[in-house]
Amino acid sequence: MTPEDGRLILSAIIGIALSITLIIRGRLHPFVGLLCGAFTVGLLAGLPMEETAKAVEKGAGTILGGTGLVVALGLGLGAMLQLSDGAGGLARAALRLSGIRGAPWASLCTAIVIGLPLFFETGLVLLLPIVASAAAALPHGQDDDTAKLRLMLPALSGLSVVHALVPPHPGPLLAVNALGANLGLTLLYGLIVGIPTAIIAGPLLARFTAPGVKLSPPLLEPVKADVPPPSVGRALTAVLLPVVLIAAGQAVAMLPPTVAVHFHWLGWVSDPVVALLVAVLVALPLLFGRRITDRTIQNAIWTEAMTPAGGILLAIGAGGALKQVLVTAGLSDMLVRLADGGAISPILLAWGVSVCIRLATGSATVATITTAGVMQGLVAASGVEPEWMVLAIGAGSLFFSHVNDPGFWLVKSYLGTDMPGTFRTWSIMETVVAVVGLLFVLVASSIF
């Protein structure tokens, strides 16, 4: 390691530490804190101010240009499922079918299905009050805090796994684009790795972490519109449609050329933006029927969707800016040299960098964006399949959620746990997802 490498690492540490201080101590929005950290890294690493500013603009612009529409359309679909009570209907149906003994598994499966097109925060707000109500309705002797947590924690596990590992969520999708991974294979591998990871971190782990944790009443109920709830079939169609379109487009490449020529249109329909737009247009009549022309319904959908969009987009953009400054300063090249020396596996290195940025910034999406950006050169140089690098980064981005993660406070509020209880349940669960996910990635990457 050269003195310049040491200066770059020190610059990155100081810049990220400044971001943490501004966000936690200074109570600044992550957008402002991350931008300050990005400029600090550039200046301490020896980049001229003009070059640092250009890197910030390039990083934020590239990320928002490719992700803004995905975020907006995903939030819109989530708002439709929330306002129509479509997601709630799916959850209640699954819990009714499962019975008491299978309720934690039904909670996990429902979260994985519902979480496919939804942001983590949207799925959380939709599912936890429903699952808590189902737990409260359990037969006498089962309605206690442990029983509630054994239903709610699997739902959180399912939502976390699909958020970090399965496109078309913005984090995995951005990593796919940055590393040149195959979207269809990443989706498939993400499910292969994610489902057993969610089982271990959800229903199985909850048996040990839930007992003894006390709950207070839930904070809020999800907002609903005054419309008849859709059938389970219609809600399920709206949830799965974007995933099916993306997967179908990738499957066309596997067909014989004489057959594939008749399905070339699936190539552009499977683009994540187009797939989500089609899903939104189809979901409107499926979930709201003739009320789709009602101005109050349309206003409610996009007001509900856009309320969180600003903060999400700003944080993602600032994460892209920090990533680009680190790349411009030479961190990516330094990591390539480190991996070329055989000191550490590229998959482990990607996971470790993602863990560090997650702990520092509190954002899984920012950790994924930043790590994927600085790992581009390493993927090309190491020969590791980029799909596994995407999943390793996604797993690391969940490691130990704590007080600088907005999701920590949201989960605390909706679970009704105190601080120690939130660390014992949520923070440990996220750490298990990160570690077990990495282990499955290492095993699966050696098999496939």
UniProtKB/TrEMBL annotation:
The keyword RNA-binding does not apply. GO terms for cellular component: plasma membrane. It is a multi-pass membrane protein. Its main location: membrane. Signal peptide: none annotated. The keyword Transmembrane applies. The chain crosses the membrane at residues 6-24, 31-49, 61-81, 102-120, 126-142, 186-210, 231-253, 265-288, 300-322, 388-411, 423-447. InterPro entries: Glcn_transporter. One of its GO terms (molecular function) is gluconate transmembrane transporter activity. Coiled coil: none annotated. It is found in: Cell membrane. Belongs to the GntP permease family. This is Gluconate permease.
